Amino acid sequence: MKSATVAYFDGRVSTRRQALLTLDGGSVTISCEGAGLSFPVAELVIPPGVGSVRRTVRLPDGGLCELDDMEILAELERASGAGNSRGLLLRWEKSLPLALAALALTVLVVVLFLHYGVPSLARRAALALPPATENTLGRESLATLDRILMKPSTLKKERRDQLSELFRLVAGPGADSKGYRLEFRSSPAIGANAFALPSGIVVITDELVDLARQDDEIAAILAHELGHVRGRHIMRHIMQSSAAGLIVATLTGDLVSITSLAATLPTVLVDASFSREFEREADNAAIDWMKSAGISPRRYAEILGRLQAQLDVRQGKAADGRSRVRNYLSTHPDTGDRIRRILKAGGE
């Protein structure tokens, strides 16, 4: 039998009373003026300690005891079975190596989720997205880009009609391609570029058309962008980026990063640096279309090489860092590897 003086609260009023807590085998007795209570030890709730704060014992009837006697508290924990797991947790909290291990494990879980879990969830969400929502996002993104980055195309109507017909040829007769459309824009800020927006909108700049030496090269670029469209890469990229941002913002408490995402979405679409997986899928789509059309994939490799040469020159001129160098390859990295893969796929 062990006893200790405790501060007793009956759970009905806030009055603090001095009492005697007695542990006798499997039962606990609380004795004070005007009260005498007994409970099985197994029914007690003993919360874990927090720093130097007095420990508490919660009683089955809603009452509570505060005590400083660690010896009887340890006896209560052992008798109630609460001490085993709590002791392990306490040792873990007090051990720097174990705390660092827990932190590393948490970081690893978050990284693995961002790397594997988020892309899988983004793909499911993109495929389930209502067409009306995607159409609205594509339309509004194009309107925003027209206000801040792009100007009307200066290509002659005859040339635009030729390229629109080429786009329809590349898109094919499938039911899904009926809603796709090609938009022409001029933009020194974006440079020689082509990119896909949600809902099947593909934008091509006058600068890219001027750089191409033949329409087969433009067709290859269009086939690549349509590969992004059919793979739902645009929406998957947006969802992956926003999901990662939301997770990081939640962990860091940085709500500004959440609200800024919606405002910067159009720029994100233009600057979308797709994953290697997305780029490989889009390149495969371009290669497959060119082979089916009887066009050598070399045409695709040639315009990529010309774009890379142009980018290298512009980067050299902007070595002082005062201007931002842009063209199609600014958001399509690993050009050399892509060109070698394309030529290999064409048997060259």
Keyword list:
348 residues, alpha+beta, PH-domain like, Zincin-like, four-stranded mixed beta sheet
Please tell me about this protein's structure.
The chain is 56% helix and 15% strand. Strand 5 (55-58) and strand 6 form a beta hairpin. The strands form 2 sheets. A 6-stranded antiparallel sheet has the order 4-3-2-1-6-5. Strands 7-8-10-9 form a 4-stranded mixed sheet, with helices on both faces. With 348 residues, the protein is α+β, with helices and mostly antiparallel strands. The chain has 2 domains: 2-87, PH-domain like, CATH 2.30.29.30; 131-231 and 268-345, Metalloproteases ("zincins"), catalytic domain (Zincin-like, 2-Layer Sandwich), CATH 3.30.2010.10. Residues 254-264 have low confidence and may be disordered.
Tell me, briefly, the overall form: elongated
Secondary-structure arrangement, i.e. CATH architecture of the largest domain: 2-Layer Sandwich
Q: What is the total number of structural domains?
A: 2
Task: Briefly note the structural class of the backbone.
Answer: alpha+beta
CATH homologous superfamily label of the largest domain: Metalloproteases ("zincins"), catalytic domain
Order of helices and strands: EEEEEEHHHHEHEEEHHHHHHH
How much of the polypeptide forms β-strand, as a percent range? Answer: 15-25%
CATH topology of the largest domain: Zincin-like
Q: Give the strand tally.
A: 10
CATH class of the largest domain: Alpha Beta
Strand arrangement, major sheet = 4-3-2-1-6-5
What do the pLDDT scores average to? Answer: 80
User: What is the alpha-carbon Rg in Å?
Assistant: 33 Å
- Span between N and C termini? 90 Å
**Helical content, roughly?**
55-70%
- What profile does the largest beta sheet have? 6 strands, antiparallel
Number of helices: 12
Poorly predicted runs are 254-264
